Amino acid sequence: MNSEDYVRIEEAYGAKNYHPLDVVITKGQGVWVYDVDGNRYLDCLSAYSALNQGHVHPAILAALIEQAQKVTLTSRAFRNDQLPLLYRDLANLTGYEMSLPMNSGAEAVETAIKVARKWAYTIKGLPRHSAEIIVANGNFHGRTISLISFSSESLYKDDFGPFTPGFVSVPFGDIQALQAAMNANTAAVLLEPIQGENGVILPPAGYLADVQALCRQNNVLFIADEIQTGLGRTGKLFACQYEDVRPDITVIGKALSGGFYPVSAILADRPVLEIIQPGEHGSTFGGNPLAAAVARAALQVIVDEKLVDNAAALGEYFIEQLCEIPSRHVQEVRGKGLLIGVELKPQAGGARRFCEALLQHGILAKETHQHVIRFAPPLIIDRPTIDWALPRIREVLTMP
Length: 400
Ligand SMILES: *Cc1c(COP(=O)(O)O)cnc(C)c1O
Hints:
2 domains, alpha/beta, 7-stranded mixed sheet, 4-stranded mixed sheet, Aspartate Aminotransferase, domain 1, Aspartate Aminotransferase, domain 2, globular
């Protein structure tokens, strides 16, 4: 079978909740993927940053195989010998005292919201069911009903109500608006430090530090969704660290999996996370030994291969070189580390046709929103590979 056969079958039998580029990948290795017709591509999406360690990293693969041969699922009704070690590794790496494992990113954000609400009722002393959580316009936190309830994207939301109450949305990056939205019922502020899905939107410098200060003044929890920005992607372990911000709760997912097996978590200190009592929250697969073993190996690769430093150094180089491309279509190149957005002018005809052209040149990238091409290769990428990509990107960005 060739690519067209697979596309035809997928279109015939699969729900069309995505609009993928027509490349049918059959193999991945490091920063490269291969399609069923034998073509090679540089992966500049990294599964939305779930593949920071690259495709099929041998150390993570070995951990997966080893654990899969021993025990894969115990349920949390019993203990297993992998989860405690993941807890300890997460604490040592991130500096948070405790963590709570889930599977997908959306579930972890939901978990953070539940923890914040319970914190508001039991610690802050708000009347039950009165808690408000402030979020930002343009946010992306996942696809559950509660999370889309406070999305500002009509495509994600409009046909899926009724919605979960208790959320207030303010413009991203506007500290005055955030201050104005705070009231006696505010339990938490939930933000992405950089809005990835919204087109790699960076807040003004100092914003995250101001948010943290405002939260502390008002006895409000600051929850950072670092599912996409975390674990090295932006050139720091967490993007909040650029402003020396340490949120009360940090949510991670994506690259915690090493691209192998869904695993997410929320990180917090004892006073926050200890409020969750047995039975109040859970997940059949959350914290299973296979996930824990994979996550531990995925974290170890980030440390051993200095992926945070590599993202910082090569991200700076990549952005600098992208800025040099003389393209009449480009409005702005922006980003931090290896989370890079190239925003096109409205008259460029949308980012999709550029992503299709990049595909023809051996580069996989995906438009985010209509006018932004995101470049987010695995953090293991090296400079010669970026130098391989640059003339190809240049050719596409300078097309008519
Ligand atoms: C991808 C993402 C999520 C959702 O993660 P899933 O694993 O797809 O549920 C949440 N927040 C951010 C910032 C993300 O990028």
